[in-house]
Design brief:
The protein is mainly alpha-helical. 47% of the residues lie in helices and 9% in strands.
Length: 114
């Protein structure tokens, strides 16, 4: 994944730990001080939502049916989703820009149409 600022071209991959702790869609580039936003790919959203839905479904079934094995299935479905995100990021989304410039108020960004 391309973690460069779309405005100044500086590499922002060192900020990943702080963004994992405080997830925000809009950030200020620490180099050029201009506002950029996180560009989330549809595949990332599908994996995250599917993983959470699978976890919730299996956990609810395990609670309702009183089956301990389904709790393990729920746990492993959450682990599969957590493992799939970095894998997709490294293999499929290599050139995907993580950040896009913010559009002025009232204007659509080209990344909004993806």
């Amino acid at each position: 994944m391309n973690h460069r600022c779309p405005l100044c071209g500086k590499d922002l991959s060192g900020r990943r730990l702080s963004q994992a702790i405080v997830a925000r869609m809009e950030i200020d580039c620490p180099y050029c001080k201009r506002r950029i936003r996180t560009n989330v790919h549809r595949a990332e959203a599908v994996i995250l939502l599917g993983s959470f839905a699978g976890f919730a479904l299996f956990a609810a079934l395990a609670y309702w049916l009183k089956r301990d094995a389904l709790f393990l299935v729920a746990f492993f479905s959450a682990l599969a989703g957590a493992a799939a995100l970095p894998l997709v990021e490294r293999l499929w989304l290599r050139s995907w820009p993580r950040y896009v410039p913010m559009a002025p108020e009232g204007m659509r960004n080209s990344a909004d149409e993806r």
